[in-house]
Design goal:
By secondary structure, the chain is mostly helical. The chain folds into 3 domains: 206 residues, Up-down Bundle (Growth Hormone, Chain: A); 59 residues; 260 residues, MFS general substrate transporter like domains (Growth Hormone, Chain: A, Up-down Bundle). 76% of the residues lie in helices and 0% in strands.
C-alpha cells in the first residue's frame, strides 16, 4: 500500500514505530525477575520455568533474519501491523495461562510475532528519514532498544511484588493497541517496497523450506545450549546432550551458510556481512549487548544474594542508569547530526563501557548503594554512545535492496549477544566461585592465627547463645564456611566484570577497521 498523498511528519512515524519496539524489547528482560513467582503460581519446578525465557528468545531469533523475506512478500506495513496485533494477543494469553505448558506455547507465539517488530521499525526509520538525519532517527530507536532492557528488571520486579506476575504480560494490552492505532495511521510502505512486492506477485512463490529448517535447527540448538549449558555441566554432561547440541549448531550453521549462498532468493541472506562496516558493527553490537545483558543479570543477583536486597530495591539501584542513557543518546544523536564520524563515538562508548565494567570489578562487600549506581551509570553511558552511531555505520554502505536482510541479521546478532552474555555470566560466576573457594580454603588451617582468632571469638559468642560447647564449636565452623562462600561468590562476580572490561577494551581496536561513517548527504557510496 502506497503512502497517502499528504506528507506525514517523519517524527510522528518515529514515535509510532518506537512504541511497539520498546514493548517487544522490554519483554526480553521483564520476565526474568519473576520466574520463581511464575513457577510457584503454576505449580512448576524452578528449572522448568526457565523455558518461559528460552522459548521466547528462540522463537524471536528464528523470525528476526526472516523479516526481510516476509516483508518483501507480504508488505512491510501489513506485516508490521500483523506482528503488533498477534504480539498483543499473545501477551494477553500469557497472562491468562493456567499452566506452564500453555504459558510456554503463548510465549512462542509472542516471540514469533515480536521478531518482526525490531527490524521493521528500524527499516521504516531508515526509509523515512534522509541520510543527514539518520543519526537522530537511530537515536530515537536507541531509546527503545537500549533503555528497555535496562528498566525491564526494575519494572518486572515492581509489578510482580505489587500486583502479580500476570500483569507483566497484561500491561502490553494498552501499549499494543496504542501502537497498532498509531502505526496504522502514520506508517506506509515506500515506493520501492511496493514495486518489489508487485514483481514478486508475478513470480511463483519459491519458499526455501530447507533454509528455514536449517535456521530453526541452528537457533533452537543455540538457545537451549545457552539456557541449559550450566545446568547440564556443559561438556561434562554425562548424557551427552551438550555435545549433541554443539554438533547440531556447528554443522547446521555451516550448512545454512553454504545452502543460502547458493540460492538466488535466500530466506536468510548473509551478503550484508561482506561489507566491512556491517561486519565490524555486527561483532561490536553482539559483544556490547552481551556485556549489557550479562551485567544486568549479574548485578541484581549479586545485590540480592550478597547484600540482602529484594528484587525491587535491586532494580531501584539499577534504574538511575536509564535516565543517563536517555540523556546520552540524545546528545549522541545531536553530534551525529552535526557530522561527527560515528567511528569515534563508537570508540568512546567502548572505552566507557570498559571503564564502567572495570570500576565494578573493584567493588567489595562493604559498598553502599551509591557505589553500585555510578559504575553502572558509566557502563550504560558507554552503551548509549555506541548504539546510534553503530546503526549509522552498519547501514551506511548497504544498498537499499539489501537493507531488509541487513536489519534482520543485525537485530538477530544484537539479541543473541544478550543471550550469550547472560549465559556467560551465569557460567563464569559458578565456575569462578568454585575456583576462589578452593584457593581461599588453602589458607584456612588451624595454625593460621587469623583463623584461630576468628574461631575463638565466634565460638565464645555462640556459647553465650546456646550454652552448648559442642554446638558452639560447630556453629563457629559453619560461620567460617559461610564467610568463605560469600567471599568466593563476590570474587566470582568481580571476575565477570573484569572480563567484560577486557572485552570492551579489545573491541575498541576493531573500530580502526571501519570506513568513515558520517551521516550526511554524499557520505556513502552504496548503490541505491
Amino acid at each position: 500500500m502506497n503512502a497517502p498523498s499528504r506528507v506525514i511528519n517523519p517524527w510522528l512515524v518515529a514515535l509510532a514505530v518506537v512504541v511497539p519496539t520498546f514493548m517487544e524489547v522490554l519483554d526480553t528482560t521483564i520476565a526474568n525477575v519473576a520466574l520463581h513467582h511464575i513457577a510457584g503460581g503454576l505449580s512448576a519446578a524452578q528449572s522448568d520455568s526457565e523455558w518461559v525465557i528460552t522459548s521466547y528468545l528462540a522463537a524471536n531469533a528464528i523470525v528476526l533474519p526472516l523479516t526481510g523475506w516476509i516483508a518483501s512478500h507480504l508488505g512491510r506495513r501489513r506485516y508490521f501491523l500483523l506482528s503488533i496485533m498477534v504480539f498483543t494477543l499473545a501477551s494477553m494469553l500469557c497472562g491468562m495461562a493456567s499452566n506452564l505448558n500453555m504459558l510456554i506455547a503463548c510465549r512462542v507465539l509472542q516471540g514469533l510475532a515480536g521478531g518482526g517488530l525490531q527490524p521493521c521499525s528500524q527499516g521504516i526509520l531508515l526509509d523515512t528519514f534522509p541520510k543527514e538525519k539518520q543519526g537522530a532517527a537511530q537515536t530515537f530507536f536507541g531509546i527503545a532498544a537500549v533503555i528497555a532492557p535496562v528498566v525491564g528488571p526494575t519494572l518486572g520486579g515492581w509489578i510482580t511484588d505489587q500486583y502479580s506476575w500476570r500483569w507483566i504480560f497484561y500491561i502490553n494490552l494498552p501499549v499494543g493497541m496504542l501502537a497498532w492505532y498509531l502505526c496504522s495511521k502514520w506508517v506506509w510502505d515506500p515506493e520501492y517496497i511496493t514495486k518489489e512486492q508487485e514483481e514478486l506477485k508475478k513470480q511463483p512463490l519459491r519458499f526455501d523450506f530447507p533454509g528455514l529448517s536449517l535456521l530453526v535447527l541452528v537457533i533452537v540448538a543455540w538457545e537451549i545450549l545457552l539456557s541449559k549449558g550450566q545446568e547440564w555441566d556443559w561438556f561434562g554432561d554425562p548424557f551427552g546432550r551438550i555435545q549433541v547440541l554443539v554438533i547440531l549448531f556447528v554443522v547446521g550453521l555451516a550448512t545454512l551458510i553454504w545452502w543460502e549462498g547458493r540460492k538466488a532468493h535466500p530466506i536468510v541472506s548473509f551478503k550484508p556481512l561482506r561489507d566491512r562496516n556491517f561486519a565490524v558493527s555486527s561483532l561490536i553490537v553482539f559483544c556490547a549487548f552481551a556485556v549489557l545483558y550479562g551485567s544486568s543479570t549479574l548485578l541484581p543477583g549479586m545485590l540480592e544474594t550478597l547484600f540482602g536486597y529484594d528484587a525491587l530495591h535491586a532494580g531501584l539501584v539499577l534504574s538511575p542508569s536509564g535516565f543517563f542513557t536517555l540523556i546520552t543518546v540524545i546528545i549522541v544523536g545531536r553530534l551525529l547530526g552535526l557530522g561527527t564520524d560515528a567511528r569515534w563515538l563508537i570508540a568512546t562508548g567502548l572505552c566507557l563501557l570498559a571503564c564502567g565494567s572495570y570500576w565494578m570489578s573493584l567493588m567489595n562487600l562493604e559498598i553502599s548503594p551509591g557505589q553500585v549506581i555510578w559504575p553502572r551509570v558509566v557502563l550504560v553511558i558507554g552503551l548509549g554512545c555506541i548504539f546510534a552511531p553503530l546503526n549509522v555505520a552498519a547501514y551506511l554502505y548497504i544498498p537499499q535492496k539489501m537493507r531488509g536482510a541487513a536489519v534482520g541479521l543485525f537485530a538477530l546478532l544484537r539479541n543473541e549477544g544478550g543471550s550469550f552474555g547472560t549465559s556467560l555470566g551465569q557460567t563464569l560466576t559458578v565456575r569462578r566461585a568454585q575456583f576462589h573457594a578452593l584457593r581461599l580454603n588453602e589458607s584456612l588451617d588451624p595454625f593460621n592465627p587469623a583463623v584461630a582468632s576468628f574461631l575463638d571469638q565466634s565460638k565464645a559468642q555462640m556459647l553465650q547463645q546456646t550454652g552448648d560447647p559442642v554446638a558452639a564449636s560447630q556453629m563457629s565452623m559453619q560461620a567460617l564456611s559461610n564467610a568463605l562462600n560469600v567471599q568466593a561468590q563476590a570474587l566470582s562476580y568481580f571476575d565477570c566484570f573484569l572480563i567484560f572490561a577486557v572485552a570492551g577494551a579489545v573491541l575498541s581496536f576493531f573500530v580502526l577497521g571501519m570506513r568513515p561513517s558520517v551521516a550526511k548527504k554524499g557520505a556513502h557510496v552504496a548503490a541505491e
